[in-house]
Give the backbone structure.
Amino acid sequence: MIKQAIIPLAGLGTRMLPLTSVMPKELMPINGKPNLQYILDECIDAGVREFIFIISKKKLSIKKYFFNDNFYKKIIKKKKDKRLLEEYKKIKRYQKMIKFVYQNKPRGTGDAVLKCKKFIKNKYFLMLLPDDLIIRKNCSKEMIKLHKKTNGSIIATKKVERKTVSRWGILSIKNKKKNYFQIKDVVEKPSIKKAPSNFAIIGRYILTTKIFNEIKKLKPGQGGEIHITDAIRGLIKKENKFYGNIFTGKYLDCGTLSGYINSSIEIFKGK
């Protein structure tokens, strides 16, 4: 069973400036609750019971959001507001599930995942990128179901227009079924001519603990960062057990200002 999820949260959020100069993008509200909370609820519904948050000292407000008991107790005592009490109960539930790991230098998603190694208890774990929301269907639940079927690592994927492939990590595929396929390789932001398919990576992964050894072998790339995609490519070459899950929900990109506004509208419409 997949019981743990890693969520990298130490990124600088430059695509959302100037808003992220005062607030982490993961705490920006979408229809009344933070972006991050949608991801937690998705995972909990899929059976996850422990979260490892990777944060930096610049993003301690994320920790404060979930561990601000004195504030809630004072306000609830003063206001006697039932809605606040219910929200506090939700926060208390999250508290029991969250651990924090620190990445104070921006060294990439691969480095962030490696810092969680000592906390991972089972062979497989979830890793979710907070910029990507998937609504109307539980993507993590679909991925766990496929993992049980294949006993392999899973990457969430969706079809994109051919003309946009240079903006995505694109999967080279084989043995395509109705809602999944085997992954032969990953190509980062290829040209239209060189793209092996138009199936793009979305920020949901089920990874094996073997990924940690692959990350250790990597040298920092562009910008001094260690990329999880490079570790995944190394592991794909060694074992034939990576699968793409063609999820059925609606994908929302919350990592840009325009995407954030669109996500708010889409989630509001779905209420």
